[in-house]
Every structure is written in structure tokens, then in C-alpha cells.
Amino acid sequence: MKKILASFALLAVAASSYAAPLVTIGDQLDLFFKGAVMGRWDSNVLLSSANKKDDYSVTVRLGVEADYGRNSKFKANIKFYEDINRYVNYTSLNSNLANVFATASYTETVWTLTTNFSYQQVKQNTSTINAPTLVRRDLYNAGFNFAYDFTEKMFGEIGGTWYAERFRDYEMTYSDTDVYSLPVSLLYKVTPKISVGLTYQLRYSDFSNGVSNAALYGTDRWDNFGGVTVRGEIFEKLSTVIYAGVMNRQMNNADSSDFTDFAFSARFDYRVTEKVTAFAKGYRDFGNGAQRQSSVNTGCEIGVTYAMTETLSAVASFGYVNTKYKLIDRDDDEVYPRVGISYNPNKYISLSANYRYLNNSSNVYAYNQHLIDLTFNVRY
Q1: What is the pLDDT of residue 71?
Q2: Most exposed of 98, 176, 255, 301 (fewest Cβ within 10 Å)?
């Protein structure tokens, strides 16, 4: 522990002392240096139910950010960083992981186009990824959303997303996944602050590798969702985004399984005072596991943020997720309370400390985990 804290302190001082200067090119493009040092204690690194391993780790994050469009209809932002992860005891878990995040938008009087892309290298386990070591995989996300105002009160949106997961370890155990979705919404402004409408989404999931469960779960599946949408400030200080309706899943497995269920996604934000903000969110949707499992996931989270001063803030929340698997006898209940505090003395640096507890109660794969994080961030 002393080694971790010492390394954390030395790297934090070095990062703040030698932060690269801000570079501006023309009147549109800004370049930033981004760095962080993170110290962590993890009580169950592998998320194991039987062979629990606790360890300390240090992550040094080095990256850059480009921000374009300060005075333009076209805006873009690109971030790249490399995480250098080092463990104290289980050095075989060490890794260097790259990350890229990009967004772009173009705005006209009656229409707006937004796009996003991300690539993440991750090395971690989950409730459906359990192995005697951390499992390495690549995650891709890309999408767009086009919004158009037909009249002063009526507008529509159409979008598309792509999510992909590529396993670099245990390729014959876990399946690579591609998920494509196409959401369409038509909304009407009931008041200047509230919009209601209809939404439909088509989603397609395709699997490859990890063939052991192909007969049970199939090679692909189709999801259809249709429902109503409510957005905006429904009361003073209370804003929301709600999707609620019916979802159907058709699986290309040996039994051509077909499931229909209620689905929703909702978030509420309430400004209690100038310093206190409360939030609540929930969802219910079909899910996919790492071995092609099909499930219905129902979750919620409530929390509060408190701005104690202009530079010091705190957050506390409690989350719960139920995962009910289809075609097999498995039911998981997961809870994850957390508390955190952050200090932002200026726009260049920030410090934070967080604690999270995770408990997955399951009739198949139960585990729990304690996480303590200390993070120092630099953006210059």
C-alpha cells in the first residue's frame, strides 16, 4: 500500500509540473495534453465466486485531445489515451490498453447531425465472463443521429448504431458480437419545454466464434421495440427523458424462440437546491451475454450530487440490476452502492476518491467486490 501511495504522489507531482502547454491552431482547433494517475485497491480482481484475489494497482494514463469548431457550425472532438496498468502482486495481469473517443456535429437552422465513434481495449471480467485470469477484448461503438424540424412544433429523428465486441483471449469460449440498431422517432412539442411522440427501433445481433452454445442460442437474433417518448422539463426543476413500450425478440436457434415483454428507459433529474441535484434512472431491455446468452435486464439507480463549494463536490448513489436469463435456469440480482468526492481547484487539474461495492446474488455465479479508487487528472 505504501508503494502505491508513494508512486501515486510522485507521478501526480510530475504530471502537474510538466504538463504540456495548450496549443491553438488558427481560430478553430485546440490541442490538449491529457494525463491521469489512478491508484486502486480491488478485493476481487477476477470477479471470482471461489478463488478471490485482491490486489493494488496503479494506472498511468497518457493522452491527447483535439477540439475543433469553436466558431463553426461543424464541431468535432477526438480523444486518445493509453492506460498503463500495473499490479503489485499479480503482475501477469499487467496491460497496456488504448482508447479512442470521437464525436462530431453539424447544425443548421432546421436540422442537426451528430456522430460518434469509440474504440476501447479492455481487460476485465463480468457476470458472463469468468476465467482464471482477466479476459482481453476490444469494444467498438459508432453511431449517428439526424434530427429535422418539420414545423415549429413537430420534429423527427432517425439514427443508427453499431456495437462490436472482439475477444482476444478464450476465442472459442466467448463469442464475438455485432449489434446494429436503427431507431426512429416522431415528436410533437406540447409546450416549449415538453415533447411527446412515438419511437420504433429495429435491432439485429450477430454472433461468431464461441460455438459451444450455438445450438441453444443460435447465430443471430432480431429485436423490435415500439412505444411512446416524453422529453423535457415536466415541472419546474424536474427534467426527464422517457421511452416506454413493447419489445419482441426472435432468435435464430433450434427452437426459433420468440419472446415479447415490456420495455422502458427513463431518467429524471431534479435540482433540489443550487447545490444539490438528485437523479433517478431505470431501464428494462433484452440483453446478450458473452456466450450468446439471452436475458431480460431490469435496472435502476438513484443518487444525489452535492456541490459543497465551488471546487469541492460529492456524489452518492445506489444501483440495482436483475438479469433473468432465457432458456436456462439462471437469475442474477446485482446491487452497487457507491460514494465519491472530487476536488477541482482549477480548469487544469482535478482529484477524486471513490468507493464502490458490488454484490451479485445468483443461483449460478455469485460474487462480491470492493473497489477504492484515487485519481489525479490533468488537462492542459
Answers
A1: 85
A2: 255
Over the stretch 58-96, which tens digit does the pLDDT of each residue have?
999 999 999 999 889 999 999 999 999 999 999 999 999
Q: What is the 3-state secondary structure (H, E, C) of 271-313?
A: ECCCCEEEEEEEEEEEEECCCCCEEEEEEEEEEEEEECCCCEE
Span between the terminal Cα atoms of the chain, in Å:
30
Q: How many CB atoms lie within 10 A of CB 334?
A: 19
The tally of CA atoms less than 13 A away on the side-chain side of residue 213 is 17
pLDDT tens-digit readout, 175-231: 999 999 999 999 999 999 999 999 999 999 999 998 777 789 999 999 999 999 999
Q: Which of 348, 353, 352 is nearest to 16 (CA)?
A: 348
| pTM score of the predicted model | 0.91
Contacts of 237 (CB under 8 A, 6+ apart): 270, 271, 272
Q: How far is CA 239 from CA 100, 230, 232, 279, in A?
A: 31, 10, 5, 10
Q: How far apart are the C-alpha atoms of 221 and 204, rounded to whole Å?
A: 6
Q: Is 87 left (phi over 0), alpha (psi -120 to 50) or beta?
A: beta
- DSSP3 helix / strand / coil % (the chain, rounded to 5): 5, 65, 25
Q: Cell numbers 504530471 label which residue? A: 15
Distance CA 104, CA 74 (A): 7
Phi, psi of 3 (to 5 degrees): -65, -40
Cell of 66: 483535439
d(Cα 176, Cα 52) in Å, to the nearest integer?
A: 27
pLDDT band at 15 (very low <50, low <70, confident <90, very high): very low
Percent of the chain with pLDDT over 90: 88
Phi-psi region of 218 (alpha: psi -120 to 50; beta: other; left: phi over 0): left
379 with 361: CB under 8 angstroms? no
Cβ atoms of residues 82 and 96 within 8 Å: yes
Q: Which range, of 6-10, 177-181, 228-232, 316-320, averages the lowest pLDDT?
A: 6-10
Quick check: 198 and 154 in contact, CB under 8 A? no
